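Hey, can you fold this one?
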Amino acid sequence: MSETVRVVIVDDHEAVRTGVAAILRADPAIDVIGEAENGFDAVALSLREQPDVALVDLRMPGTDGIWATERITAETGTRVLVLTTFDSDDLIARALAAGARGYLLKTARGPDLIQAVHHVAEDRHVIDPAVAGSVIARLNERSAPAEEVSLPALTSRESEVLALLAEGMTNQQIGDRLGIGITTVKTHVGALYDKTGATSRVQLGRLTGLGRAAR
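Sure. Predicted structure:
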């Protein structure tokens, strides 16, 4: 992936596409290269432009976002970040099963949206804090022991960051709670990924139930 994240926006409302594009263009490391208003056009656009990330709404006329997510992730190297107003467990599960790397509500703040795009571009999962709790609960119910990630020795600060991350907090919220900068939070989160082998914030959140971290 290039240093600049190439993004397409898929939503049937032009005003939403325009607003999201304006937010993303505030970050010079993001390049909005195209827009689509339905799932069929989204797949065609992704095949043609090969963006790094596709921001996809779920409910659209004709071919919806679930269909588009399945096709985009199956036929291109583009990673999908769902951006929607719907927070039902069923839609979240279907979107993630279709291959989405992230699920964000349209109520998300601009900085959180920008951060989510970068995380998904880096092949990390992103789940909106407003729905993270139900996602983690669902995964815990279905997880087999062989799928669990073991909990290594963590520093006290890493343990604090992990606990807040498991509550569904964003990096900014964790920094505010602990009184540390967001760069420091990112460093600790990166250390958690390295130490545990987890590949998503959801997996990291599950670790809090596996044992007490070492101080």
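The first helix runs from residue 14 to 24. Let me know if you want another pass with a different chain boundary.
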